[in-house]
Amino acid sequence: MAPLIVHADRDRLAAGLAALVAEDLRAALRAKGRASFAAPGGTTPAAFLSALAAAPLDWARVSVLPGDERWTPPEDERSNEAMIRRAMAAATGARFEPFWRAGETPESAAPLLSAAIAPALPLDVAVIGMGADMHCASLFPGAANLSAALAPDAPPVAAITAPGAVEPRVTLTLPALAGAGRLYLLIAGADKRAALRTALGERDATVAPVGAVLGAARAAEVHWAP
Ligand SMILES: O=C1O[C@H](COP(=O)(O)O)[C@@H](O)[C@H](O)[C@H]1O
């Protein structure tokens, strides 16, 4: 089971996880000359991403991609791409691989994105968040094609439409996330900790996608603060 690391507060969560991820990326750079990092979306990770971007690292050799994207242009305040770019502005030279593509739908974009990110796979590091409904990235309970996105042979990127999601989305699938050299779940607050406890006790992957992803991961840790 993925160990749970408890931080005293959200500032220490952001700084502590950033230090770990920066070291993972440095190790990948030393080993291979390049590194890949999937960043979480939503509201929780901005402080972590800013702390990470400030870490001394040769960002020009790092590929950054979102773990999932709401199907909305980067000008929209709900865009994960916009949040990640803003929070990681200090990561000078990092190569960002956007998921939103003008003129495409999630369904038409997913195979294009799977091909585009293939050189970055397996990911060196993926950090994911979680909703209180136990979704992670955009692997939402109740999504029509969730089982396909959780399958061991799923392509790296899938389109997702779910009742619990405001807009259609694209997401990294279970094999892309679980295959990362390091997978971290970044969560904060009592509601998320309770949801994680429920998820870890749930056997049905389509009810608790986050439990399935953590369970399949090569190396996973959960980082939480109140
Ligand atoms: O919609 C999303 O939600 C989750 C959780 O976000 P948070 O705002 O509760 O931190 C996030 O991990 C995911 O990337 C995002 O698209």
From TrEMBL:
Cross-referenced InterPro entries: 6-phosphogluconolactonase_DevB (IPR005900), 6PGL (IPR039104), Glc/Gal-6P_isomerase (IPR006148), NagB/RpiA_transferase-like (IPR037171)
The protein's enzyme class: hydrolase
Pathway: Carbohydrate degradation; pentose phosphate pathway; D-ribulose 5-phosphate from D-glucose 6-phosphate (oxidative stage): step 2/3
A Pfam family recorded for this sequence: Glucosamine_iso
Keyword Hydrolase: yes
Keyword Hydrolase: yes
Catalytic activity as recorded in UniProt: 6-phospho-D-glucono-1,5-lactone + H2O = 6-phospho-D-gluconate + H(+)
GO BP terms: carbohydrate metabolic process; pentose-phosphate shunt
EC number: 3.1.1.31
Residues annotated as signal peptide: none
Name under which the protein is recorded: 6-phosphogluconolactonase
Family matches, as Gene3D superfamilies: 3.40.50.1360
Highest taxon of source: Bacteria
Keywords: Hydrolase
Free-text function comment from the UniProt entry: Hydrolysis of 6-phosphogluconolactone to 6-phosphogluconate.
Domain Glucosamine/galactosamine-6-phosphate isomerase: 9-224
One Gene Ontology MF term: 6-phosphogluconolactonase activity
Family: Belongs to the glucosamine/galactosamine-6-phosphate isomerase family. 6-phosphogluconolactonase subfamily.
